[in-house]
Specification:
The protein has about 575 residues and is an all-alpha fold. The protein is about 65% helix and about 5% strand. The strands form two sheets. Strands 1-2 form a two-stranded antiparallel ribbon. The chain has a two-stranded antiparallel sheet with strand order 3-4.
Length: about 575
């Protein structure tokens, strides 16, 4: 746990300083006078350091040397801007605490400290996610050692998935300090989300509207749900945390303007535009949340309305700058712009993964996620007939979750239809937000319908829809709301309570396991036994016949199949890349 806290302290220092510098540039470029909150700065820092690590990976491994430039930059920036940096933290603390009495301040402080300690202890345990042993740890090892290697997906297809988060993981693994690669970033992201939730809920009494507060509760529920995977470099945690954060801040802005009877003005455009840029970053972490980028329509509309053509160009350039390193590393690792979209085949590079292999890999993923005991051809090319079987094969808790979310969506669409008939006033921005979520859920269902990929969208429906209608129709009072709205509130509360209770109890079990063993050090990646084989003087490792495809961090480099040795062409060194022979 102590090692994890040290790792988190280092991460926080770097991303806060880098995020502050970048945020100040954005504020000057887009002319905003609003001071961003601390969490916006931290998520900006995560984005900036990820982009840096991706670019660095083109030239070298993301290891100790990759940390030198950020450290030098941050130290210089600290010397130049220490007063403004300290002031930002002080102002955030005052705003968070100002509405609390003395007991409330003490209680919030205890919750924050206790939450961080619990999250650190959970993050210090053994990795539990199957994908960690399958390819996450192996991917991070490649990035640490050699960066983004040309054609590395030819060795092992999952190495081409290329989530941008793994570059952040590699940058802050601190193997050069601790002698082992740290894997605590998943817990760190969840911890940030939990703290954002606590800070938002601390001021709930002074809020006239409470939809954003409901989303803060959803943030806390998600932080509890994923406690089992705090110790894993889990690529679903950060995008879900980002999407929940974006929605909570987005609706918080809408409620603040509504409370003061204001319409969005020039000063508000940056706040919305910044959240949209975070949505772009979330997409390069996990393309399953791509529909969050639909939110860009709102600030785009405001900018066009104000004829801010230079700012529109500025946002486009910034968004492109976030995406380009992701595309660049994709092209290097697999030869494709987006690895799982093989139809976008633009680059005739020799290290490109064969399209048939790529298509089979994508079909296999869809088949595995749908979890249906039938031939792959039936499951993949079965229209929508597979959905009932997929639903029935899920756990009872997930079936309840899906039914509850579907009921709430139908409830929302019903009330929206009534409003359209009556020609009642509709909040266009809130409507866009809800349909962003609904389209995201449809996309999830027809691509990779596994619950961990879209917790943010599911929790949004559970948290927002009932509270929104209590505010809109009941005037903020449940007693004044109709029976259907009361039923929606009860349904949502039961489902959220069920998952919180189940995963909360499981968390206590994990804490009990971790306390005796991981108070100082973090558990290292699990080690697996593999069979060594040689190609052009380089030793690779393959699984034993009939063995599981679990290679982990230390079996390096892993080769999917010994028969591939005949087809793979290797450079003089591993960093030179791999491609398939034409012969």
């Amino acid at each position: 746990m102590i090692m994890v806290l040290m790792n988190w302290f280092y991460i926080t220092c770097i991303i806060y300083l880098a995020g502050s510098a970048c945020m100040n540039l954005l504020i000057k470029a887009f002319g905003s006078k609003k001071e961003p909150n601390l969490f916006s700065v931290l998520f900006t820092g995560i984005t900036v350091t990820t982009l840096y690590a991706q670019i660095f990976s083109v030239f070298s491994g993301v290891n100790m040397w990759a940390n030198i430039l950020p450290i030098i930059f941050c130290l210089l920036y600290l010397l130049l801007a220490k007063r403004s940096l300290a002031e930002r933290i002080r102002v955030f603390g005052i705003k968070t605490m100002e509405c609390l009495e003395r007991r409330g301040k003490v209680f919030l402080s205890v919750l924050v400290i206790g939450g961080v300690m619990i999250a650190a202890l959970l993050s210090a345990g053994q990795t539990k996610m199957l994908d960690t042993g399958w390819y996450h740890a192996q991917t991070i090892r490649w990035i640490e050692e050699y960066g983004s290697v040309k054609g590395v997906a030819n060795l092992f297809i999952p190495l081409g998935f290329n989530s941008a988060q793994h570059y952040f993981d590699a940058l802050f693994s601190m193997r050069f300090i601790f002698g082992q690669s740290m894997h605590a970033t998943g817990g760190y992201f969840a911890c940030l989300l939990m703290l954002h939730s606590l800070c938002r809920l601390a001021g709930w009494k002074k809020h006239r509207y409470h939809t954003a507060d409901a989303l803060a509760i959803a943030e806390m529920v998600y932080a509890i749900i994923i406690t089992a995977f705090y110790a894993d470099p889990y690529t679903d945690t950060l995008p879900n945390c980002l999407v929940l954060f974006i929605f909570a801040e987005w609706i918080g802005l809408l409620e603040e303007q509504r409370e003061h009877g204001q319409k969005p003005g020039k000063e508000d455009i940056f706040s919305y535009g910044f959240l949209c840029l975070l949505g772009v970053y979330a997409t390069v972490i996990k393309t399953s949340v791509v529909f969050v980028m639909l939110l860009t329509l709102y600030p785009a509309y405001l900018l066009i309305k104000e004829k801010e053509w230079k700012k529109i160009a500025g946002y486009l350039i910034t968004g492109i700058a976030i995406i380009v390193p992701f595309f660049l590393t994709n092209i290097r690792t697999s030869g494709y712009l987006v690895f799982l979209a093989g139809k976008i085949d633009l680059f005739p590079v020799k290290w490109k993964v064969e399209k048939d292999i790529l298509i089979h890999a994508v079909d296999s993923m869809i088949y595995d996620v749908r979890n249906i005991d039938a031939p792959m051809g039936e499951v993949i090319g079965d229209g929508i007939a597979w959905i009932p079987r997929w639903f029935l094969n899920g756990s009872i808790s997930h079936q309840i979750l899906y039914i509850g979310v579907l009921i709430l969506i139908m409830f929302d669409l019903f009330y929206l239809f009534i409003r359209l008939i009556k020609r009642s006033k509709i909040d266009i921005c809130m409507l866009l937000t809800r349909f962003t979520v609904y389209l995201g859920l449809i996309y999830w269902l027809f691509t990779l319908p596994q619950v961990r990929y879209c917790w943010a969208f599911l929790l949004f429906v559970l948290a927002v829809i009932p509270v929104w209608y209590v505010e809109e129709i009941g005037g903020g009072k449940l007693k004044s709301a109709g029976i259907m709205i009361k039923g929606a509130v009860i349904l949502s509360s039961v489902i959220l309570g069920m998952f919180t209770g189940f995963y909360g109890l499981r968390t206590l079990g994990y804490l009990k396991q971790n306390v005796p063993f991981y108070l100082i050090r973090q558990a290292d990646y699990e080690k697996y036994e593999m069979v060594p084989v040689e190609k052009d003087g380089i030793t690779f490792y393959i699984r034993e016949e009939g063995g599981a495809i679990v290679c982990g961090y230390y079996v390096f480099p892993y080769l999917n199949d010994e028969s591939m040795l005949e087809d793979i062409v290797v450079g003089d060194e591993l960093r030179d890349g791999f491609y398939l022979s034409d012969e």
